Amino acid sequence: MQHNNMFNYKNYRYFKWAVLVILVAFAAYLWFEPAVGHYGGSWLGYGLGTISAMMVFWMAWYGVRKRRYRSSGSTQGWLSAHIYLGTALTVLVTLHTGFRFGLNIHTFAYAMLLIVVVSGFFGNYAYMIYPRLMTENMGEDSLDGLLLRIAETDKLARQIALVMPDEINFTVDRACRETYIGTRLLEQLRGYQEDCPTEKAVKKLTVMGNELAPEQRKLYRELYSIMVRRQTLVKRVRQELMYRARLGIWLYFHVPFAIALITAMLVHIIAVFLYW
For 68, which DSSP code? Predict the structure, then answer.
């Protein structure tokens, strides 16, 4: 039995719709309006524009409606519709323009559409990839649990470092103080800290251990093990924050630009009926 996902949802329902819409639009474009004579103000241009506007409103409404449901099926259907019909919509609107662009509200609306579609594609990609990566990274742990474990390693590492040579104590203390985890959005999106103090501390401790007296090496090995564990925990937390940030960041572009698209489209329609 075939497993449903966003691409083959309901036996490729939205893919078939999209292919049908594109084929009909191309056939009408080539048959009734040769590329030389076509423009948005022709009867075909009005037809393509009307269908495109209806699709934009339907997809926007469907996006709002989808959030009222929590089943995976409804989410898959919403994503499938946006992938395939969004692609078809881009083709329809391009044919609607007749490939005539300029510095005006009409081209601006077209540009908004392209941005919305591209950001939507990234959103679909994010929801395909990052939830699985988050599960692999976190397992059964929680973000709060990992942060608590980092705090515990800090406490243990500092206690041991106090009875070690000053250079080791300073290195561990600096790693605990200066290692930050996604304090700003850009850092969360990157998923790493440049010249991470914890990573540098682990590398330094590897060298420093060779210079210790035999009676200090047992404590050193314990300290080194704690710092390596801290490094792993920090990396996992950063990965989790990175996945969360990348899952959410596209909405900061997609939703505002979708609103801008609808606004520009309405202005475009009003301008057409008032001045053309």
Answer: T
Name every residue whose Cβ is closer than 8 Å to that of residue 270 and which is 6 or more positions away in sequence: none
Residues 124, 14 contacting (CB under 8 angstroms): no
Query: Which two tokens mark 202?
Result: 């682990």
Task: Give 183-232 pLDDT, tens digit per residue.
Answer: 788 888 888 888 899 999 999 998 887 777 787 888 899 999 999 999 99
Helix H segments across the chain? 9-32, 43-66, 72-97, 105-138, 143-161, 166-178, 185-190, 197-208, 217-275
**What does residue 196 show for φ and ψ, rounded to 5 degrees?**
-55, 125
- Which whole-number Å values give the CA distances from 194 to 55, 137, 175, 191, 231, in the listed order? 45, 21, 13, 10, 14
Give this prediction's pTM.
0.73
One-letter amino acid for residue 264 of the chain: A
Token look-up 């609103």 returns 259
